[in-house]
Amino acid sequence: MLEDERKLIELLKEGEADAFGLLYDHYFPKIFRFILVRVGRREEAEDLSHQTFLKAWQNLKNYSDKGLPFGSWLYRIARNAIIDYYRRSKTLVSIDFPFEIPENSRLEEKMDASLELEQTIEAIGELKPAEQEVIILRFMEELSVAETAEITGKSEGAVKVTQHRAVNKLKELLRQWKKS
Amino acid sequence: MEEIINKIQKLKNIKPRPAFVLESKRIILSSVQTPRKTVFSFWLPLPRLVLSCSAVMAALTLALFSANLAGQAPTVAKIYDLNRETESAVEKIDITLKEINYFNENAQVASLALDEAASNGLRHLNAAVLEGEMESFNDLNGYLHGENIDKLLDQASQ
User: Fold this and answer.
1) CB-based burial label for B116 (10 Å; 0-12, 13-18, 19+)
2) For chain B, what is the radius of gyration of the CA atoms?
3) Taking all residues of chain A, what is their mean pLDDT, rounded to a whole number?
4) Is the dihedral of CA B81, B82, B87, B92 positive or negative?
5) With an 8 Å Cβ cutoff, are A54 and B31 in contact?
6) Per-residue pLDDT for B47 more than 60?
7) Quick one: what percent of chain A has pLDDT higher than 70?
8) DSSP A50-117
């Protein structure tokens, strides 16, 4: 959660565009990652991220602070955007975006890191959509079980069960890929 | 488990293009936001009310127009004919009222004449009475000449 987030939200509700700018800077990379890992294409992830923030900006009056970070609301909007995207396109995840690997890495390291990330995303892509969401939110974005439950609309117990199942599936998938 | 979590956490290296982030932010912040409630929000129902009334009027006009097309309601020509008939009826009523007034006045005159005739026993129509009156008138006419008038005036002045 962003420091002084509540103060920013108060300012935002009073019509301070700068407050939205600060929240945007903080949350855009997170929302973009969340979408990109799900849809696999940079352009589409950019479009969906833009749509997410545009919807948030236009519907700020509908945001009610339930003690959870502003990000939870953004993740929920992004989640709906992804669902709509799959309803429209029905295309499967195919990874076609370059990863940003630290500049000081050697070429060999860069390639290894890139391959590893690709494999991880492919493995996540093999999971069910609900499992993907939980894995991304819990381990990539490091959100709490409560926050993940709020975003996905599940109970905390259901999130824990989904997480356990998804981790086991990923373990199995990566083990199989190592063998092959 | 840890190995998998570490792999997933490395996905944090995925970052959006800075140029896209800036452009997207600029577009969003320059877009129109849903208006918030202000002190003047109480005026907002007014345009809504006007809009609603307009919509109702439009719906009524459309309904009347549709009914006309279907021939279920009077056409404009029929309404015009009806109007003319009404005007004609009003004129007739007006004429009748004038006639009633005329007859009423005449009835009063006739009534007075009848009363007079009844009280005098129709004397004014008797030829002998009429002749008598004519003679006395002639006498009086003859009396009112020259010196007689002067005498009468002197008597009146004394």
Assistant:
1) exposed
2) 52
3) 85
4) positive
5) yes
6) no
7) 86
8) HHHHHHHHHTGGG----SS-HHHHHHHHHHHHHHHHHHHH-PPP---------TTS-HHHHHHHHHHH
| Domain chopping of chain B, boundaries | 74-120, 123-151
When pLDDT is cut at 50, 70 and 90, the band that residue B44 belongs to is: very low
Chain B residues closer than 8 Å to A27 by CB: none
Distance of alpha carbon A33 from alpha carbon A40, whole angstroms: 10
Q: Residue A166 in contact with residue A134, Cβ under 8 Å? A: yes
Q: For position A146, which CATH number holds?
A: 1.10.10.10
Domain assignment of residue A102, yes or no: no
What is the predicted ipTM?
Answer: 0.79
What letter would DSSP give residue A127? S
Name the residue among A20, A54, A139 with its Cβ closest to that of B8. A139
B50: its two tokens: 């006007």
Q: Residue B15 and residue A100: Cβ atoms within 8 Å?
A: yes
A37 touches chain B (CB under 8 A): yes
- Same domain for A18 and A46, yes or no, is yes
